[in-house]
Design a protein that fits this description.
It comes from Ceratodon purpureus (Fire moss). Pfam families: p450. Its cofactor is heme. Belongs to the cytochrome P450 family. This protein is of the alpha+beta class. The protein has one domain: Cytochrome P450 (Cytochrome p450). Helix content is 46%, strand content 11%. It is globular and about 65 Å long. The N and C termini lie far apart (67 Å). The structure holds protoporphyrin IX containing FE (HEM).
Length: 480
């Protein structure tokens, strides 16, 4: 007998497949599958095969004792996933990292913007303020990036000349952090001064972020038993990273005068603004770039090799000939291959892979084949890497195709690119939860690749370690 149709969908209405198992043990079993027995890829794919569905029920880590309720409806296709952007259907309150909420002690006791639902007045104020200070400093980002990136290039070249290892991973922590703070607060965090962070700013921001994410982080390169005991038995207390946080907070309090004054003009308390500014720049912004810059470099190396590198080098060199040899917004307009490579990087491996939202009401959800009844209060969860590999939208989804987003056909794919927590063709606003830095992120990622290939014709990389703990080093760098 054919499945009944729902009132709002033409697709057959079927029960959401999958189950959660027994309380506690079901969640622990799924967690062990996720991090240990199966690993991330097999975890999803085995369930998709078993249930013949891209929508299914499962428990997501961390589960007990850190999360009270780990039950989610998992979405891994292009049709169902965008419901997570529809804030009329899902609530985005306290779901930034998933089914648990890190202590507000990591953020001076405040629920910072990323944890707020757009229905909360504070979200509107904080996000609007973020837009305002990004816009005010728009002209600073590219020059500051250039200055900071150049310092790292000198480090790499000196290291290689001296037979030392040239660490991409370590230098990203310097330039990705420094250019942001210099652009917005007009002070070099490494420069001497009463609150100077020296060369510790980026590394300290990474250390402060880690315990907030630890319960959902796996594949760190540590033995599984160590990961399980250290990250998923009890939350890591904020006290362990308090000194790093205090140093960062003190820096923003000292040098963040301009953005903090702007916040006060909007009626935001100065301490709360400082905690948010720190989170915007050290978690959202630096955290994202710190993942994406090494990744895109790795993809170009792994999937493009010298041929793609030389094409990029040619394209960049020609484009900047008209702008005095300097990377500018205008020059970026004439780098279609580079732009496509950056989008393919965001598609191939979205830097923030997980999105959550709690159903605000009962509604019918659709994937490509079926429709499903979702009940108010159920947690929806999307694993974006699989959504970005949906074969119904992306041809040869498992391949990194540098030209995928070029030309009119490539342009048509952009509405399906969701790295920013929304379609690439939609605008981030105070009413949605799309990344506040969306435009800046795309521009600066293009600038990063452009600066790299302006200075170098090609490079080779060495990778040390495995998983998220792996480190990239330049083995060779051929200067232009
Ligand atoms: C590669 C870099 C970046 C990536 C991958 C990234 C990704 C994201 C994603 C996926 C979200 C949504 C999280 C969720 O609710 O599920 C988000 C939110 C946010 N991002 Fe970004 N981001 C990046 C850089 C930036 C930058 C440069 C800024 C600028 C300050 C920024 C500011 C924000 C803010 C404020 C939010 C919260 C938005 C809201 O509450 O409505 N991000 N980002």
């Amino acid at each position: 007998m054919a499945a009944p149709k729902s009132e709002t969908s033409t697709r057959p209405l079927i029960p959401i497949p999958g189950d959660y198992g027994l309380p506690f043990s079901g969640a622990v079993k799924d967690r062990l599958d996720y991090f240990w027995f199966q690993g991330e890829d097999k975890f999803y794919k085995s369930r998709m095969d078993k249930y013949k569905s891209t929508v299914f029920r499962v428990n997501m880590p961390p589960g007990p004792p850190i999360a009270d309720d780990s039950r989610v409806i998992c979405l891994v296709d292009q049709k169902s996933f965008p419901v997570l952007f529809d804030v009329s259907k899902v609530e985005k309150k306290d779901v930034f990292v998933g089914t648990y909420v890190p202590s507000t002690k990591f953020n001076s006791g405040f629920r910072v913007c990323a944890y707020l639902d757009p229905s909360e007045e504070k979200h509107t104020k904080l996000k609007q303020w973020c837009f305002n200070f990004l816009a005010r400093n728009g002209k600073n980002f590219i020059p500051e990036f250039h200055a900071c990136f150049e310092q790292s290039c000198v480090e790499w070249e000196t290291d290689l000349a001296n037979g030392k290892k040239a660490s991409l991973s370590a230098e990203v922590q310097q330039f990705a952090f420094n250019f942001l703070l210099r652009a917005i607060c007009h002070q070099d965090p490494a420069a001497p001064g009463p609150a100077s962070l020296g060369k510790h700013g980026g590394p300290d921001a990474s250390t402060w972020a880690l315990p907030q994410l630890a319960p959902i982080v796996g594949n760190t390169g540590l033995p599984h038993a160590v990961e399980e005991a250290a990250f998923r038995t009890v939350p890591i207390p904020s006290l362990l990273v308090q000194n790093k946080y205090d140093a960062l907070f003190n820096w923003f309090k000292t040098y963040g005068k301009e953005p903090l004054d702007m916040a006060e003009e909007l009626g935001i308390d100065r301490n709360e603004a400082t905690a948010n500014l720190l989170f915007f720049l050290c978690f959202n912004a630096y955290g994202g770039f710190n993942i994406f810059f090494p990744e895109i470099t790795g993809f170009i190396h792994q999937f493009g090799g010298p041929e793609l590198m030389h094409e990029l080098h040619d394209e960049v060199t020609k484009a900047v000939a008209a702008t005095g040899g300097v990377v500018t917004l205008g020059a970026l307009q004439n780098m279609p291959l580079l732009r496509s490579v950056v989008y393919e990087g965001f598609r191939f491996k979205p830097p923030v892979p997980y999105q959550y939202g709690k159903a605000k009401c009962d509604f019918i959800l659709e994937n490509h084949e079926n429709s499903f009844q979702v009940k108010k209060g159920e947690m929806l969860y999307g694993f974006q890497p699989l959504v970005m590999h949906d074969p119904k939208v992306f041809e040869r989804p498992g391949e990194f195709l540098p030209r995928r987003f070029m030309g009119p056909e490539g342009e048509k794919l952009l509405p399906h690119v969701f790295w920013s927590n929304g379609p690439e063709t939609e605008k981030t606003t105070v009413q949605n939860k799309q990344c506040a830095g969306k435009q800046l992120v795309v521009t600066m990622s293009q600038v990063f690749v452009a600066e790299l290939f302006l200075r170098y014709k090609d490079f080779t990389l060495d990778i040390e370690g495995t998983g998220k703990g792996s480190k990239l080093f330049f083995h060779t760098l051929t200067k232009a």
